[in-house]
Design brief:
CATH topology of the domain at 228-311 and 395-486: Palm domain of DNA polymerase
Structural class: alpha+beta
Number of helices: 20
Helix content: 25-40%
CATH class of the domain at 228-311 and 395-486: Alpha Beta
Largest sheet: 7 strands, antiparallel
Radius of gyration: 29 Å
Oligomer: single chain
Number of strands: 24
CATH architecture of the domain at 228-311 and 395-486: Alpha-Beta Complex
Length: 675
């Protein structure tokens, strides 16, 4: 029998187990149920055995598959046992099944996108908002409820929506899946459910094993712990400055020490005022504190970004940095990957037909090696969970990079260039073309001294809100337009785990700064699709929508007044809405604060009077709760809930609200232009 791959999702209640499966090559949707109404246990097991090649889900390795694995491996089974097992899995810190015990191969879209990382955590409901699905649905009943037959049908419809969301996200991950398929072949190891960083770390592991002759079990539990760092040990010998200001700075920090887990108040951080900009120099990196501004050039000027290519692996290689417990073979591994990527894989890529299978395979390999050097190598030296842990590597790498960059900034400034902005691995400068030879000389001398490689990007104009939010007009060496770079607040199409709210705002801002179109014209005409902006696709009411995500015990309510009486209705944990001319208030209710957790700001907000404060002070051992706390999500505005898409001729949008959101950014920028 020809087995197929299926997208799937399960729901478990005290009297219902439901599994929906959808074939990825057809619209075939199959459901299996174990409940008071019907028992399809045997049919379910036979279908999995005879028809299913692999299963695709979202967080399925940690929940859905362990439940199914339990069903497949337990002889006597009923709803209570399945429900109890489900709750045990939910409460377990580690619930996944070992790879070699998995009966049906799994692909977990949650894992491969690294959504299990705190900085990228993302639920399927939030993806439904990001992917602009027509319906964003919450589980209709609490997990511990025994369901009626009608309620079971409601749960099945909810599950279908999750299947639709998972399928949509699967289709958006085809390149990620092809990459992992190629890496499984290249590495002869199953990395299908590895995040990018984990793939990089595995490549680092096998490279180190080969160079050191050690097996993974010999070093997997080894780490080097550090407590205190002396800055003089982190400064490369070649670092020197020409100006008294930076010389004094270097002398001052050379005598300092800092702790790895220092408090925020005692953190190692210096604010420098040099070259006409304010620079924040900290142990984790360096960047300028940029004011909102517009930078343009005349015909006899150049605007460039000098960016350090492969800064972190470059620092490690030239500095010969390595975790103490692993020895120099670790650094040699990073160097091997760097050389393979730069001198073998990339040249070979240029000889292949773009997007051919051979091209895609080599491209996957060079991306994997980049991951191994950066997140899977350098990044993991700062993770206590990694066999590569030695924070001295992190500190030496960052100090080498940022002090080197400060040397470049100083030389460029002294040569007459205007320093516009700087970040951890680059500097933006503006200068007269007459200085080109001098700037090129500084460029080459700096590379010779530091052994880094500088890469130039030419700009015609940059619109800054801050160092992380800007629109850059990129041109070639002849001044011809190449593309626009939109970052931060100006980014229109964002990574899925990020906030996709108010997409109309960066669209209107880009249209304003790039095409000189009034904000009002873009916003009022957006749904009419009058203009086809090169940087904008998918015109829709969703561009005006905002996503509200409730965490922990926070609850979102819609508030309206019916017959002059307040009526609050609880909303979903993920709620989509837009600001409208008529509608409801959105109120976030927060759990009460305990007495000992009250800050002075909390006390001020809650308007606690002196007598109440004395009462709090008298009762030290009893938990005293504050009055209910509320926040209006859109103060002074009313909103329309839009979890269910509706096509309307008039959505009654409060256009002035969105115009005002744009004008706040524009006014801040245009008050301080740099021409």
């Amino acid at each position: 029998m020809n087995k197929k791959n299926y997208i799937y999702d399960i729901e478990v209640y005290p009297n219902l187990f439901l599994c929906l499966l959808k074939c990825i090559v057809s619209d075939e949707l199959i459901s299996f149920e174990i409940s008071d109404k019907i028992n399809q246990l045997n049919e379910f097991k036979l279908f999995l055995k005879n028809n299913v090649k692999g299963m695709i889900g979202f967080n399925n390795l940690n929940y859905d598959y362990p439940v199914i694995h339990y069903i497949l491996t337990t002889k006597l089974i009923n709803n209570k046992l399945i429900y109890d097992k489900s709750q045990l899995i939910i409460k377990s810190k580690y619930s996944s099944i070992y790879d070699n015990n998995i009966i049906i191969p799994q692909l977990d879209l949650y894992k491969i996108n690294h959504f299990d990382n705190a900085a990228r955590n993302c639920s399927l409901k939030w993806l439904e908002f990001a992917m602009r699905m027509t319906s964003i649905e919450d589980l209709p009943y609490k997990f511990d409820k025994s369901l009626s037959f009608n309620e079971m049908e409601h749960v099945k419809n909810y599950c279908k929506n999750d299947i639709e969301a998972t399928e949509l996200f699967y289709n958006k991950n085809i390149d990620n899946i092809i990459f992992r398929t190629n890496m499984c072949t290249e590495l002869n190891h199953n990395v299908m459910n590895y995040s990018d960083v984990k793939i990089g770390e595995y490549i680092n592991q096998i490279t180190y094993e080969k160079l050191s002759g050690r097996k993974y079990n010999d070093f997997k539990d080894l780490k080097t712990y550090r407590d205190i760092f002396h800055v003089k040990d982190l400064i490369p010998d070649y670092i020197q400055f020409k100006t008294p200001y930076l010389q004094d700075f270097l002398n001052e920090i050379s005598d300092k020490s800092f702790y790895l887990n220092e408090s925020k108040e005692n953190s190692f951080c210096r604010i420098l005022h040099f070259a006409g900009i304010e620079i924040k120099f900290a142990k984790g990196g360096v960047h300028s504190n940029d004011n909102p501004m517009i930078v343009t050039i005349s015909d006899d000027e150049l605007l460039k970004e000098k960016d350090v290519g492969s800064m972190y692996p470059g620092s490690i290689i030239e500095g010969m940095f390595y975790p103490e417990h692993l020895g120099k073979e670790w650094y040699l591994g990073i160097k091997h990957l760097f050389d393979e990527r730069a001198f073998k894989i990339k040249p070979a890529l240029k000889k292949e037909v773009y997007k051919s299978p051979e091209y895609n395979f080599l491209d996957s390999k060079q991306n994997a090696y980049k991951l191994a050097m950066n997140g899977g190598g350098y990044g993991k030296t700062g993770s206590e969970h990694s066999w590569q842990y030695d924070p001295m590597v992190i500190m030496k790498t960052t100090f080498k990079g940022q002090l080197s960059l400060l040397m470049l900034v100083e030389d460029l400034y002294l040569a007459g260039a205007q320093i516009i902005s700087m970040n951890t691995d680059g500097v933006v400068i503006k200068y007269n073309k007459s200085l080109s030879d001098k700037i090129l000389e500084i460029h080459k001398n700096w590379e010779n001294t530091t052994k880094y490689i500088l890469e130039d990007t030419n700009y015609k104009k940059i619109v800054f809100r801050d160092v992380n939010s800007y629109i850059a007009f990129i041109i070639d060496d002849e001044g011809n337009h190449l593309k626009y770079k939109l970052k931060g607040a100006f980014e229109i199409d964002r990574d899925f785990h990020k906030n996709h709210s108010k997409r109309i705002v960066p669209i209107a801002l880009a249209n304003y700064f790039i095409n000189n179109v009034k904000i009002e014209d873009t916003i009022y005409n957006h749904l009419n699709k009058i203009d086809d902006y090169s940087f904008c696709k998918n015109y829709n009411i969703f561009d005006f929508c905002i996503g509200a995500k409730m965490k922990g015990d926070n609850i979102l309510y819609q508030r309206e007044f019916i017959d002059f009486k307040q009526a609050d209705t609880e909303l979903s944990k993920i709620t989509r809405y837009y600001v409208s001319n008529t509608g409801v208030e959105l109120i976030k209710k927060l759990p009460p604060l305990e007495k000992n957790s009250l800050t002075e700001t909390d006390k001020h907000k809650l308007k606690i009077n002196k007598n109440q404060m004395n009462l709090f002070d008298l009762i030290e051992d009893i938990k005293i709760e504050t009055p209910d706390r509320e926040e209006n999500l859109e103060a002074g505005q009313v909103c329309t809930i839009f979890n269910k898409y509706e096509m309307k001729d008039d959505y009654n949008i409060n256009y002035k609200y969105y115009i005002n959101e744009c004008e706040k950014i524009i006014n801040a920028i245009e008050n301080d232009r740099t021409d």
